[in-house]
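Explain this record to help learners:
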Amino acid sequence: MFFSGDPTARKRVDLGGRSNKERDRQALLDKTREDRRRRLGLRLQNSSATKIQKCFRGKRDLELARAEVRGNFCSTFGEHCQRVDLNSFGANSDFLRQFLFFFNAKRDSDIAILSQVCNLLLEYVKHGGDALSLFGGINYSSVESLVVHRVKKLALICVQTVHQKRHDWGSQLLMPSERTENPSALLLETVACLINPKLPWNCKVVAYLQQRKIYCLFRGIIVSIPQAARNLQHHNSTSALEQVLMLIASHIGHDPCFCPVVDPRWSFSSQLLSIPFLWHRLPHFKKVFSANGLSKYYIHQIACFLPSCADVLPNDISSNHPGYACVLANVLEAATWILSEPKLASETAADIIAVCTSLLDALPTITSPTGNVEVEAVGSICAFLHVTFDTLPAERIMTGLAYRTEIVPALWNFIKRCNENQSWPQFSKFVPSLPADSVGWLLPVSVFCPIYKHMLKIIDNGEFYEQEKPLSLKDLKSLVFILKKALWELLWVIPAHAPPAKKVVPNPSGLKKLSIENVKIRARIGLSELLAQLQDWNNRLPFTSSNDFYSQQATSENFVSQAILGNTRASEIIKLAPFLAPFTSRVKIFTSQLANSRQSTTSHSALTRHRFKIRRNRLLEDAFDQLSMLSEEDLKGPIRVVFVNEHGVEEAGIDGGGIFKDFMENITRAAFDVQYGLFKETADHLLYPNPGSGLVHEQHLQYFHFLGSLLGKAIYEGILVDLPFATFFLSKLKHKYNFLNDLPSLDPELYRHLLFLKHYNGDISQLELYFVIVNNEYGEQSEEELLPGGRDIRVTNENVITYIHLVANHRLNYQIRPQSTHFLRGFQQLIPNEWINMFNEHEIQVLISGSLESLDIDDLRANTNYSGGYHPDHELIDIFWEVLKSFNSENQKKFLKAGVPGMEEEDEERLPTSATCMNLLKLPPYRTKERLERKLLYAINSEAGFDLS
């Protein structure tokens, strides 16, 4: 090293901030930590090696001990049990002790010995021997624990052996139990013998088997049975496998059992009911499961683990067979058989519905093409519910399905996908109770429609339009199209009458075939009612075009002509599903019916013409006194009116129909005026019966009957009257029941309050509401119970929905029932229910008051007759129609009060005058358009009465 010239020693600085001592200390700590970890790992390795060696030595010693005991056993009893007798089964014998110790289900020689043991036992029992004395001798009580232990082990190894050899013995597993040459049948029949309900150890043995996960073993056995074996025709007698399952299931589900509760993961319901097509694999076992009481127990067991079914149910079959879908399908198929039994208790069916509806919630929304598992599940659900609807109270079932399940969106997704794919499955392949000749959409549609229809009665406008529950508004458009197409096919394409009844051939499952005609009838009714209800919703606030409800085939003139003829398929469609035809087509049919009725009435009463004098200042009273005495036939006949003015003088004019029109307009204006007290109006100025009309008029119900006949007469004669009725009241003309979503048209504030209660998240009982309602009529308040004892029934979160619908029912139906009933009776004297049912409430309002749209001047001109020198091409006539077309709708309405045909007047200074008694318009020859317009406006607004002309 060379000298640098600097004699001083410079101090070195560590820029890391730590001294060498600190660095050495950290390295020492790291090394110590690593050594400690290495020593711990070494100790774990040594400990693990010790345990492995110990386990190996234990297994080796056990195998050596078993081999030694097996050798001693063969020396004592023979390799094939040649030296075994009945005494060998006793408690003091080493026979069972040694055999149960060395037995290994993987050794064929041990299985051969087990078969000999089982054969000896069964032969003894079949010849009248007693298993209790065979195992326990005469002093069973003193050796009970030993005997029970041996029986438990023997029963378990029999099942374990069948499970071990299930792939080799698969084709034998469903053989009849009598064929004991089959080793599987021999072993399983031995298990059945050991768990005989008459034996004292029965409960303990069954409990032991359950604790050892016996259902997992049975699941593996059942699933391994090949399809070819299941298809063999040897199902007339019960297999040994089914016998064992019957005994175990019956013991747990039927008898007073003290077996400890088993883990839900290893239970009967989770392990066996989740096997796909279980009842097709074990048809005889299904009968036992469906027995009244047994199925109820296991259905309750399912309900207990429903909240965590994803963690409880096995998924060892395939992703195409989810456990909850298989449980649902198996329960529903069994339920269909249950409901075909005449002695069925409604409680059992109710429990089935509760479980099935909960399982439906677990089904995911499927967007892929429909598979066999989904088709089987949907078919089983629909078949079960179809039978249930005929068995239990429909209201109870529908409410449960609507409130507690997602069945509506689930079925809709299935129906929508099938429609989009243009492929409907054949449910008869999976639902033996369904005839093979039924169309694919028939069964799901027949179940979907009544449930969704009931749901639409329950939900409110916010849920339907804003939250779009349960279906989106976009889906509703598709739904209308699908249902309309299906209904038309049922009513027009598919023959209405069933073919001759065929003899029903029983099937292996014991199910009775569903009547295809019953399914069709339910589908027809459900489709028509649901579409009518959807049309009502669409009328409130459109979610699709009104034309979407019309069937293209029902718009033709040929269809209308057939409907007018009656007793045709077209007329049947108009009765059941009038909304399939456009409004204009139905009006043609309706006017034809009216014309035929008027013609028939005129021919029978040609000489009878009623003429009444009506005082203008006593219009309603005179009309009520005279017209209310007329019979139904007289009301349909011609009625002529003579007005008497306030001076007692008869007004001029001959009633050729025009005066009667004026009479109808004036009397309806007076009678339906809210000031008269028979009717009230909503916030939108729509009329409905006054619930307190009895406080105003003593004969109020007779007046309602009279007013009903007046309205019927107006429609019967084609006279439009300006009476804007509330929709919920027009529903009464169709015998319809009003629901919660109709309440906004009567009392929007009450509707908002009820919705507040419906969606209230707190404790409703704290609001101190009771099942009573307060009526307030003319300042008099009265309290009325909504239910018997309602004053003492508090509204809670559990019964608030009932309270809401009872309040709506009280306001919309109950309060006005007497008035509506009498009004309807009068109305039906002239307009039969069959006629008015062709129209919905909004269309009925058009029949009563006409359309709010402007007058169709071109149509009016095409139907006008001319005389007195006028003709269609006359210059003044062209000017007249041009002026009339320029009027606003209000003036056009006023013009219609004058007659349509015309007659000439020479003096152009005169006003146009109307001879309404003869439906005539007297039009002077005006020279200019301006003068005609000015004079015509003055005339129609003068309201001068009949004396002007």
The chain has a mean pLDDT of 81. The two ends are 147 Å apart (CA to CA). DSSP finds 42 helices and nine strands in the chain. The longest strand covers residues 610-615.
